[in-house]
Design a protein that fits this description.
single chain; alpha/beta; Peroxisomal Thiolase, Chain A, domain 1; 5-stranded mixed β-sheet; 7 helices; disordered C terminus
Length: about 270
């Protein structure tokens, strides 16, 4: 629920990336074999040609976005550093549709921030979340924003799913200037090399390039582990660290968005 207030005036607040956290999770034990979810998953899959049986729900076990968020963020956020906004970004649905990570985080994050979710963007979802975070900071003066990116593999129906449950937290803090994140929509897979080359030419050459699965191998680039549509690129950033400039690039073959984001180093703003 959005809290109404007096009309906001644009500010000059911009964000830099202060911390990146990443964690993969072993198979979870949360169960969804209850009558209301038998009907839910039957209705969800019936009109989409997706294979589904009640036994799939009976056997399903997993981690929820809520449990992964709590495990990743415990002891990482200080009560005296409130969060102004949090965004939960995911390419796959939550394992248990009765639970809301956004509602849970509203109650537990320091400062009681506004929290909402983004989905339906495929591998572009984290880029979209960063763009929303930057716009919100400019509009509302947010000084600390959390972007939580999650992958979940236990859905009880046929789907292209991640290989393991994983979560990444991007903690954004007020900086001197905002991040330079660029998107080219409508890029077909066969047009990615040419479009990406044009985008990369717009940036100073970074120390490291991290290439998402959607852009394929790039000369000299670090490749992302397969099977993590939302978190893979950002997990590689967590491993790489923020000490030197990093350029991240990915393409979503369904939504046809080509995204590039540059992190300019530990003491510098994100993009």
């Amino acid at each position: 629920m959005y809290r109404t207030a007096a009309p906001a005036r644009p500010t000059t607040t911009c964000l830099r990336l202060g911390k990146v956290l990443h964690r993969e999770f072993p198979a979870g034990e949360h169960r969804i074999d209850v009558p209301e979810l038998y009907r839910y998953f039957a209705d969800l899959t019936r009109d989409h040609g997706i294979g589904h049986e009640q036994e799939d729900v009976d056997r399903a076990r997993g981690n929820t976005f809520t449990s992964m968020a709590h495990a990743l963020l415990d002891d990482e956020l200080s009560a005296d550093e409130p969060i102004d906004l949090a965004i939960v970004a995911h390419a796959t649905p939550d394992f248990d549709p009765r639970l809301s990570a956004a509602v849970s985080l509203t109650a537990v994050l320091p400062g009681g921030p506004l929290v909402f979710s983004l989905s339906g963007q495929g591998s572009s979802v984290a880029f979209t979340a960063l763009r929303v975070a930057a716009a919100h900071a400019r509009r509302h003066g947010s000084r600390r924003v959390l972007v939580l990116v999650a992958d979940q593999t236990g859905m009880p129906y046929e789907s292209d799913r991640p290989v393991r449950d994983a979560a990444v937290a991007l903690l954004l803090e007020a900086g001197e200037r905002g991040f330079d994140l660029r998107t080219r929509p409508g890029v077909a897979p066969e047009a990615v090399p040419e479009a990406l080359a044009a985008l990369l030419a717009e940036f100073p050459e970074p120390a490291t390039v991290i290439a998402g699965r959607g852009v394929g191998p790039l000369a000299g680039a670090r490749e992302v582990a397969p099977g993590f549509p939302a978190t893979g690129l950002w997990a590689a950033l967590a491993e790489q660290g923020l000490a030197s400039p990093v350029l991240l690039a990915d393409h979503d073959p369904v939504h046809l968005d080509l995204n590039v984001c540059v992190v300019t180093g530990a003491g510098s703003p994100v993009l």
